[in-house]
Design a protein that fits this description.
Bound molecules: protoporphyrin IX containing FE
Shape: globular
Strand content: 15-25%
Number of strands: 11
Structural class: alpha+beta
Distance between the termini: 50 Å
Order of helices and strands: HHHEHEEHEHEHHEEHEEEHEH
Length: 407
């Protein structure tokens, strides 16, 4: 009895006590439960979807779904249900009743007692949603939502690629992110089924408030990224709008996802200096070669003894806006591990590269074409998965994400 009372007080503190009775919580009760420590929630509603320009969290679960139905009203119902669940979870609320007696719980419950941990859930539509004869949406397909071309050295596997709906789930607690993945998959079924998913950690930073973390090759990753505080750069390079995007995408963004394996069998065997020349930055400080501090400007023309300080085939030179007609992308990648590479007898790991932009035809595609052809890093990585999604603008309270397209 005492244990029950304690448990009840605990659930009550979380706003879950009503749910324990197996009833659907009144919206107000659930709202009242969302008392979270300051800074731990990222608002779900707003002009832009959270999880794009908001500061990167520590963990990701990425989920690609395939929609089984070809009926527009099913897609609408799916997005309504997923958006509603996402809004709840980002406030720290369960997606539905937890203690359901003889029925399976609606909310699976592994987040109970944890804070929302800045959970953000970002949705995007893959190109196949717009296929003629499917949902009747072909005339609404945005020009920038192209199928990505094949790049040199691509080794793509369909098991890691594509998807009708892409969902990027980020949180500072991996269990909170996993819970969202788990419950979104359950809610999506049977209208949509999981196609691929990947867990990640070790973010590419995108905020001046963050120290730049290291990727699994040991280099600081995110130094020259578009920062979430840089509104001018976000407006210019990230948020979709006229003339290239249709009105329903205004304020949205295009997400490109690449699962990139790191070939440690090669990388771990090259010299430290060669590693630094591969990226064009010092490994320990993160400074551009020839400079001292991480955030020192990149001087692409600087030379020493007649040689370019930042080599002609280095990653930061070839990815630089100077080589892309001034274009930039917002990177939001994560490291992942995948056990052992049985062929190479070393660890299998890599980067789930995620980037956002206004038009992939002018941003990701030309940059990646150049990198794949000439980047010294290409010898040490392999692109094994690929997907592209049009992420619509954010929803207002009472709306669902994608309403501007489907509503
Ligand atoms: C496993 C694959 C990759 C790794 C380990 C990696 C790592 C890095 C590192 C360490 C930097 C320098 C620090 C920084 O500014 O963040 C960097 C910069 C950058 N990377 Fe990558 N990268 C990878 C793939 C890609 C891909 C596929 C693209 C785009 C097609 C890309 C685009 C960029 C851009 C635009 C910059 C900033 C360049 C600048 O303006 O200085 N990277 N990357």
């Amino acid at each position: 009895m005492a244990i029950r009372a304690t448990r009840r007080r605990f659930l009550s503190a979380l706003g879950l006590a009503g749910l324990g009775l197996g009833a659907t919580a009144p919206a107000g009760a659930a709202q009242a439960g969302a008392t979270t420590a300051k800074g731990q929630t990222v608002p779900f509603f707003g002009p832009h979807q959270a999880g794009i320009a908001t500061p990167t969290q520590d963990y990701v679960e990425f989920l690609a779904l395939d929609v089984v139905s070809d009926v527009l009203s099913d897609l609408r119902a799916l997005m309504t249900s997923l958006s509603d669940a996402a809004a709840r979870m980002t406030r720290g609320q369960p997606v539905g009743p937890l203690q359901t007696g003889i029925s399976p719980p609606v909310d699976t419950g592994e987040q109970v007692g944890l804070s929302p941990s800045r959970l953000s859930i970002t949705f995007g539509f893959g190109p196949a949603i717009f296929n003629p004869g499917r949902f009747g949406l072909s005339s609404k397909r945005p020009g920038p939502l192209v199928r990505l071309p094949a790049f040199p050295n691509d080794a793509l596997k369909s098991a890691y690629s594509g998807g009708d709906i892409g969902i990027q789930i980020c949180a500072d607690d991996p269990q909170v992110a996993f819970h969202a993945l788990h419950d979104l998959i359950r809610l999506a079924s049977p209208t949509a089924l999981p196609r691929w998913s990947l867990s990640g950690f070790g973010k590419t930073s995108n905020s001046r408030t963050q120290q730049t973390p290291r990727n699994l090759m040991g280099f600081k990753d995110g130094t020259a990224n578009i920062m979430s505080e840089d509104t001018a750069a976000l407006n210019r390079f990230v948020w979709a709008g006229a003339p290239e995007s249709p009105a329903w995408m205004t304020g949205g963004s295009y997400m490109v996802v690449r699962r990139i394996a790191m070939l440690f069998i090669h990388w771990d065997g090259i010299g430290f200096d060669a590693q630094e020349r591969t990226f064009g930055r010092y490994k320990v400080s993160g400074a551009p070669l020839g400079e001292v501090h991480e955030h020192d400007p990149i001087r692409l023309n600087a030379r020493k003894n007649g040689h370019l300080r930042i080599p002609a085939d280095s990653h930061i030179r070839l990815a630089s806006p100077a080589y892309s007609g001034g274009q930039r992308i917002l990177r939001r990648g994560y490291s992942f591990t995948d056990g052992i590479d049985r062929n190479a007898l070393t660890t299998a790991a890599g980067q789930l590269f995620i980037c956002y932009q206004r038009d992939p035809r002018k941003q990701f595609i030309p940059i990646q074409r150049r990198l794949a052809q000439a980047d010294a890093l290409s010898a040490h990585i392999e692109h094994v998965g690929s997907a592209i999604f049009a992420c619509p603008p954010g929803a207002n309270p009472g709306e669902y994400v994608g309403q501007s397209l489907l509503g």
